[in-house]
Amino acid sequence: MELTEEYIKSLTYPEYFERGVRYYKDGQVEIVTNDEDTVVANVFGSKKYKVTVDKNDLDCNCNCMAYSNKHYCKHVIAVLLSLLWGERKADRQDYTNKISKKAMLKKERVLKIKNGDATEICKQIKIVIKSQEKYWGNWDRYEDEQIEVTSRGFDLLDKIKIDFENMTKLLDLAKWYDKELGNIDDSDGTNQEFQMNIIFTGVKCALNISPPVVFEKIKPYLEYESNFDYSDTILEAFFEIKIPNEMAEYLGEYCQNTSSDMWNRCKEYWCKYLKVAKDVRFENMAKQYHDSNISILVMLIDYYQETGQNKKAIDTGWGWRSHFMVGDKILKLLESSDDFDRLIILLQERLTKNWNKDEAKLLKNRMIKVEKEKEFETFIINLVDQKYETEKLSILMFLRKYEDVAKIVIDLGSQPFINAEEYARKLAVLDKNSAKIIYWFLIRKEVGNFDRSSYYKRFWEYIEALKTIEDNKLILGYLREIKSNYPNKPKLIEKIINDWS
Fold first, then answer.
1. Rounded to an integer, what distance in angstroms lies between the CA atom of residue 2 and that of residue 425?
2. Is residue 463 part of a domain?
3. Rounded to the nearest 10 degrees, how much is the dihedral formed by the CA atoms of 294, 295, 296, 298?
4. Residue 111 above 80 pLDDT?
5. How far is CA 483 from CA 51, 121, 241, 488, in A?
6. Residue 430 lies in a domain
7. DSSP string, 297-320
8. Could you tell me if residue 431 is left (phi over 0), alpha (psi between -120 and 50 degrees) or otherwise beta?
9. Which domain, by its residues, includes 82?
10. How many CB atoms lie within 10 A of CB 36?
């Protein structure tokens, strides 16, 4: 892998590249692992972000809001620059100190509220929440604003007096917030998490009150229809806010015996409550309902794992392994077991359904361990034949069969779902000969349009890219052909003479 600055620049907007350079120069990148296949790094910004780089296909990932696989964020750029120029550790800033300092400044801006007045606090929280709307679309600034919103909001929430009268005020605030979530970006769930905390604080206000009294009060809120699980979060809060508590016991018994609709909504929370409380009723309750509720099935698997019954956990979930939540659990359990046969079966099933590079690596390692390397190669080759072109290309990149990638890209280069230019840029870093094949294809494709077009920009971009990996004499010879074949293209001829004379 031979990274270049030009390649890294091509991945994103100029401003993101410059921000990545600043992060790199400030020593904000920490390379955690750098092995044959993968780079994992932490980037320290307003918080810690995790970036991964796959060396087989140059796919990158970041868990920040600004990340997109079309235009990479500053964190990915900073990591790639660290791989290109070398890691800088000496000047790294401690991001936790930055956040702490920010939080203190925000705390000072919170109005002093007398006697935990919920009415005034709810009013201030609304102002804080709406303040982020003006930064919609400006993701770097918006991200900082979200941190500020939650920091100031939690400070205000902490000031509320815990008493029964304030419960409805907080639930009303959360209901207002529920509608507001439709007007603000919440890609990383920051706002919904804060809404959930408002509900949980409201529920705290009811813990020392008689359960029938509380239930009558919250009934209208439990009937409210929402796109953001508002009413179910109220139910969830009563089962999670304190274990054990009388209200959870009352709701569990009441819903199971009285209302089928309420029971369907709360049986998952009730099972979770019993499990966390280590109540002997949990296993029988979970076994009764796990067939109709995947979350309860997952809890039962976790319960068997936590009690040292790993085989029972695997057996319980094996029939539902095609469900991703259950499959993920079973996969983790099998990874740490000696049951290689079922692990291989599960991984082959998952890879046949959805290609996943990490699971392919795991399958390869396990099959090598049991001396089935040839069977792995046969499985992967057969898998290539079963997949659509984009997945097929991903598998071939994983296998580092770059010339096969180039052939498919050329065969399907005119299709909108194949970005030949992107593959050429990647292969220029991973395998120059394969990159040459695609760049020559792209150049000839552009030349094919010269009879009816005088647009040369893309043609020259490809020539410039090819110049860094190809014998320049070959390019010059080809340009001489172009010059003689298109004598009526003065601008094209002039550039050939000026740049390649």
1. 11
2. yes
3. 90
4. no
5. 47, 75, 77, 9
6. yes
7. HHHHHHHHHHTT-HHHHHHHHHTT
8. beta
9. 5-93
10. 6
Q: Is the dihedral of CA 485, 491, 494, 499 positive or negative?
A: negative
Interhelix angle 294-306/324-335, rounded to 10 degrees, is: 20
Q: Provide the β-strand partners of residue 51.
A: 41, 62
Counting the structural domains of the chain, the total is 2
State how far Cα 50 lies from the chain centre.
10
Residue whose C-alpha is closest to residue 237's, from 211, 260, 266: 266
pLDDT band at 70 (very low <50, low <70, confident <90, very high): low
CA distances to 19, 29, 83 from 86, in Å: 17, 10, 6
- Residue 412: which pLDDT band, with cuts at 50, 70 and 90? confident
Q: Is the pLDDT of residue 165 over 80?
A: yes
> Residue 487: is it exposed, middle or buried by C-beta count within 10 angstroms (0-12/13-18/19+)?
exposed
Please give the distance of CA 365 from its chain centroid, rounded to a whole number.
Answer: 26
What are 370's two structure tokens? 């049991």
User: What is the bridge-based pairing of β-strands 48-54 and 38-44?
Assistant: antiparallel
Give alpha helix (H) positions in 338-452: 340-353, 357-369, 373-386, 389-398, 402-411, 420-430, 432-447
Has residue 411 been placed in a domain? yes
CB atoms within 10 A of CB 288: 12
Give the position of tokens 């320290």: 44
